[in-house]
Amino acid sequence: MAQPRGWPYAEIQAGLAQTQFEHLSMPAGAEWSWVEAYGNAKLDPATSHGQDWDAAVTHASARLEDLVPDAELEVALAEAARNYALPPDEMLVRGSAWGALESARRRHSGRKWLDEVGTPFADDATPEAIEETGPWHSLLDGASFLGAGTFVAGDDWEELLAKDGGAEAQFHLATMKHARQDLGGAIAGYGAALIAEDLSLRSKVLATRGRALALLATNKTDNGLAELAAASRLEPSNLPLLSEAMTLSIRHGDPAQALALASEAPDGMSDVGRVRFLTALALAGVGQGREAAAMLRDGVEIPDIREGEDGIAELWQEVCPGEPVPAGYRFGMH
User: What dihedral angle (degrees, nearest 10) is formed by the CA atoms of 113, 116, 117, 120?
Assistant: First the structure.
């Protein structure tokens, strides 16, 4: 909803923040609770879409108060606060297995845990649960760590992985150090994992990528870009990895590498919208603006483009100066 006089706008779906581009920092141990009411407010079109902003706000506020008074919402919130800790009479749906893993982890390390009466975390042995959290339960139980497709964080996990010492454990330990910005430790950890003979291909790809990102973050640009290209070439059919490698190559001043990676991609991948856009961007970066403009005029559709992502419009303005940006390329928020 846009406000007059240049005021910032708000989005209904933004939650507690004003827009989806913003976030609120929630302190550890804090509790935020609220209730939401949904329905058709049946506003008067003439008033709500009229030129008088204050009248529209007053009208909408009055309609909402008539339909769901603030006092009723407060009563509903208080009732929810009283009931949330009661044991469920019937389990309608089960969430993921991560709550059960966290419970097991805290018991293992002797840490305090929450009261599960109202939110029981059943350790269901479903195939999904076993795949997601099974390796971590096994590590807690003292078994050798053979790798996991999921990731965890925490000092106690790091201690367990360091004690294991295997290739997969070293890789996951490196990702934990990377996540907490121990870049030197991450680079060394990725390297140790990569020289091991029993590291899986998936972990080898991710370790190479991780080392590349850590090198770039420490301003070792040439080595970082070389590692990033190597990661993409280890798994050439990995579209997100190719897109990331092309994006960072362009961002760090090597559009030629981005073009090389696109040319090496398996059949069909170069036609994907994101890859086509990055190819056009790289062409502009190596001085082939005419070729980039031709690609944009031919049409580039990026299915995963994010709201507010202005890159394709900016590229159009660069390679097609003086021409209005097509509506299909305008995703800005201004």
Answer: -170
Establish how many alpha carbons lie within 13 A of residue 311's alpha carbon, considering only the half-sphere containing its beta carbon: 20
The pLDDT of residue 116 is above 60: yes
In this prediction, residues 113-120 reach a mean pLDDT of 85
Would you tell me which CATH number, out of the four given (1.25.40, 1.10.3470, 1.20.120, 1.10.1060), belongs to the domain 236-334?
Answer: 1.25.40
- Apex CA 215: angle with CA 213 and CA 218, to 5°? 110
Closest by CA to 201, choosing from 147, 249, 133, 245, is: 147
The beta strand positions in the chain, using DSSP E, are: none
Mean pLDDT in residue range 112-119: 85
Q: 107-122 burial by CB neighbour count: b if 16+ within 10 A, else e?
A: eeeeeeeeeeeeeebe
Task: Tell me the pLDDT band of 220, cut-offs 50, 70 and 90.
Answer: very high
Task: Let me know: does 159 contact 152? Beta carbons within 8 Å.
Answer: no
Handedness of CA 309, 311, 317, 323 (dihedral sign): negative
Q: Match 């044991």 to its residue by tokens.
A: 87
- DSSP at 58: H
- The total number of residues written for the chain in this structure: 334
Read off the pLDDT of residues 151-167 as tens digits, 9 standing for 90 and up. Answer: 999 999 999 999 999 99
- Residue 333, pLDDT score: 65
Structural domain boundaries of the chain?
1-84, 98-113+121-227, 236-334
Question: Model confidence over 251-296: pLDDT tens digits?
Answer: 999 999 999 999 999 999 999 999 999 999 999 999 999 999 999 9
Inter-residue contact 9 to 1 (CB < 8 Å):
yes
Q: Give the C-alpha separation, 152 to 108, whole Å.
A: 15
Tell me the whole-structure pTM to 2 decimals.
0.84
